[in-house]
Request: fold
Amino acid sequence: MRLADARKDQYRRLAKDRGYRARSAFKLLQLNDSYHILKRGSKVVDLGCAPGGWLQVAAKEVGSTGKVIGIDLKSVEPVAGAAVLQGNIEEPSTLKEIADILGGIKADVVLSDLAPNVSGVWDIDHARQISLSTIAFDLARQTLRIGGNAVFKVFEGEMLNEFRVQLRKSFARVLLSKPSASRQQSSELYMVCLDFKS
Ligand SMILES: C[S@@+](CC[C@H](N)C(=O)[O-])C[C@H]1O[C@@H](n2cnc3c(N)ncnc32)[C@H](O)[C@@H]1O
Reply:
């Protein structure tokens, strides 16, 4: 077995053992260990949340005094401690639904693990991913409190730097991270954005 397959298998097994719905849960756990994004009592919005691995991690980290809201095109089995909306983040009505659930309070954290249906054509997939992440960033700007944090999944490629430049205008710190639970051969990376300015 190749090292990458062994690692994938290891995280799949770990997810099963620990009751996570998806191995992707470990990506958020590792990002949170490094950057302390989620805190007790945080209000979290998770964009592209199906099947719910990140929701499980977020709900546990924020505890009963926090709030977790997930959105996905797909339906998601209920997750204890999280509210889930089935909807498209590209629809303006989705922003209103999120605001309604937040009840007039701004979010502390916006997470985006959004992924398009991949075509296998690298340039096209990169462009679609950046486009989704840009929509997620717009949504984050309207939802986050000053000082809040965000995470955006991106794929490597030529449009990445421009996206990073845009993020830097809104956050005090923007870091590019590749958690070890993310497959090494995948071009997937995460932009960790700390301390929202405006
Ligand atoms: C990689 S999965 C997320 C995995 C999730 N973080 C977890 O841990 O279970 C990406 C998700 O983005 C969703 N997605 C893609 N485009 C979307 C859109 N326009 N609106 C809402 N969700 C979308 C997909 O349906 C898919 O479930």
Summary: The longest helix spans residues 122-143. The chain has one domain: 3-196. Residues 21-22, 24-25, 48-54, 71-74, 88-90, 113-116, 132 surround S-adenosylmethionine (CB under 6 Å).
